[in-house]
Amino acid sequence: MSETRSGFVALVGRPNAGKSTLLNWLLGEKIAMVSHKAQATRKRLYAIVMHGNDQIVFIDTPGLHEKERLLNKFMLEEAIKAIGDCDLILFLAPVTDPITHYEKFLKLAKNRPHIVVLTKIDMVSNEKLLQKIAEYQKFQDQFLELVPVSVKKDIGKKDLLDTIVRYLPEHPYYYDPELLTTENIKDIYKELIREAIFENVSDEIPYESDVIIEKIEESPTLDKVYAMIIVEKPSQKGIIIGKQGSTLKRIGKDARKLMEAFSQKKIFLNLFVVVKKGWTKNKKDLETIGYRL
Fold it and tell me: Which of these, 62, 213, 222, 254, could form a disulfide with 196 (CB 3.0-4.6 Å)?
């Protein structure tokens, strides 16, 4: 009987490259926050995919970007730690992206073993796809494999998982095969509420807001969740609440749908908004929320 393979695989790429979308697709469940806005993911998230007898522990990371505020610095350090700690890296390269993103990644990755995942291939013709693959061929001594995929058209999932497993070490399972993620329910609910904020509020507000789950009361058919949305300015609080509470109601409704789809339970969600001035630049505030620098 062949040995099982098991290892840690970091999903890496520019902000909004589709890392969380790819992770949810590979997992077959929605646990990672997805948004069309850049820099939505802030912390590493571990998700467990069983492929045959082998176990892949995916690490979803914040996008690679320049350091700005203290929060952005934390996000970049999360991605760099994942690159250093994993057995294998998947570099996500949307097919419409210039190759310069990959060149920047190579400087950061410092010869770490990686697979280039060419994503969103449904958006271009076969001719354009072949042209993009040819662009990457000049780096073929740098990457292990190049795998084209489309989440939207459900193309390439098995090929990608087969390829990943080939490069993982022979090792017993790190986690119970029944687990989907190492995250606790509080962290998952927090990310789903954040996703609802990103989808309902524009401009800078999603980037200067976060969610603290105050309390969860669990029962077999109902979870009661009490959560606080924090923002930096009083004007942002007004926008998140909206006229006669309309925006906050919309956020709550969308978050509830996401949470119910994940938990397969009814959700009672109590949301309120507070102002914490300068929290994205304050180390103590960041650590209170869960971002340890």
Answer: 254
| pTM exceeds cut of 0.70 | no
Amino acid at 162: D
Name the helix (H) or strand (E) containing 73: helix 70-85
In 3D space, the residue among 2, 79, 67, 31 whose CA is nearest the CA of residue 180 turns out to be: 31
What are the tens digits of pLDDT across the range 109-154? 778 899 999 999 999 999 999 999 999 999 999 999 999 999 999 9
Angle at 188 between CA 224 and CA 227, to 5 degrees: 45
How far are the Cα atoms of 194, 208, 232 from residue 235, in angstroms, in the given order?
Answer: 19, 12, 9
Strand 209-218 relative to strand 222-231, pairing: antiparallel
Q: How far is Cα 92 from Cα 118, in angstroms, rounded to an integer?
A: 6
Contact 49, 56 (CB under 8 A): yes
Q: In the chain, how many H helices and how many E strands?
A: 9, 9
The single-letter code of the amino acid at 287 is E
Which residues does residue 11 pair with via DSSP β-bridges, in sequence order?
60, 90
Give me 266's structure tokens.
């009814």
Residue 211 tokens read as 């969610």
Q: Residue for token digits 């509470």? A: 245
